[in-house]
Design brief:
By secondary structure, the chain is an alpha/beta fold. It contains seven helices and eleven strands. The protein is about 25% helix and about 25% strand.
Length: about 260
């Protein structure tokens, strides 16, 4: 582990995974439960090459480092890209994870076409209303499609993925129809879907999906819903299993819709 140096507005959190820690900036967007759920959703192979679009602090690569062969991560925000690099170094994973500052809307300038087996993305969830963009700051910008729209995300994923490659994404259930259409327009079909409910009996507020490049339409597998909290507010057994025996997810903040 590299020597730890914290800058202004930074804190060190226990990632509760393999003894790893993560530096976060309290003035920027801190990772939340949706990123943790996304990291555990795909079935990765130790020889596969993975791309994380919009990595933020680099939390997803830190969580999947053992499962993949190599992970590339791209981040537009220079503050967050620097944090992600430092987090990789802090946890001794520079041989496994490469962080690049860049704009995945211009992904052709960053990576070779169809060079990845998996793309993971936790994108901004909500479209930006007319005249709204200049009013959004900080965390609000992370929640809205200021820097990347759904079309941008899908276009970048298709460019990066080989034929038969897979996209894993977390998003809002209310946008499922347009996501299916956007994927279809880029030769991808959803094959696995799981709704995430804050509590039993409540409507889902997140969804996890997996799409395959060149997949035939149909054959969608809908998984049982993932319930986050018990009636008393504690994490359910399913969520505790995702976090493992090392903790209860205290470093993760509320989701982008929380």
């Amino acid at each position: 582990m590299s020597p730890l140096v914290l800058h202004e507005n930074e804190r060190l959190d226990d990632l509760m995974h393999k003894g790893r820690h993560i530096i976060q900036n309290t003035q920027e967007f801190c990772f939340s439960l949706d990123a943790v759920l996304l990291a555990h959703f795909p079935h990765l192979h130790h020889r596969q090459r993975v791309l994380d679009l919009g990595t933020g602090t680099g939390v997803i690569p830190l969580l999947i480092a053992e499962a993949a062969g190599h992970i590339d991560a791209v981040e537009l925000n220079p503050v967050m890209a620097d944090l992600a690099r430092r987090n990789v170094e802090l946890n001794g994973l520079t041989d496994k994870i490469a962080v690049q500052e860049g704009d995945y809307r211009a992904i052709g300038t960053l990576y070779a076409r169809e060079s990845f087996d998996w793309v993971l993305v936790n994108p901004p969830y909500r479209p930006v209303a007319e005249g709204q963009a200049n009013q959004l700051r900080g965390v609000a910008r992370a929640r809205h499609e200021v820097t990347a729209t759904l079309e941008d995300v899908v276009t970048a994923a298709r460019y990066a993925l080989r034929f038969g490659g897979r996209l894993a994404m977390v998003h809002l259930p209310e946008r499922l129809a347009e996501i299916i259409e956007a994927l279809h327009q880029h030769q991808m079909e959803i094959k696995r879907l799981q709704m995430v409910q804050p509590k039993a009996g409540r409507a889902p507020n997140m969804m996890l999906l997996e799409a395959v490049v060149g997949g035939a339409p149909g054959g969608l597998r809908v998984l049982p819903p993932l319930i986050v909290h018990e009636a008393d507010g504690r994490y359910t057994a399913a969520i505790r299993e995702i976090y493992g025996d090392e903790g209860d997810g205290g470093a993760a903040e509320k989701g982008k819709e929380g």
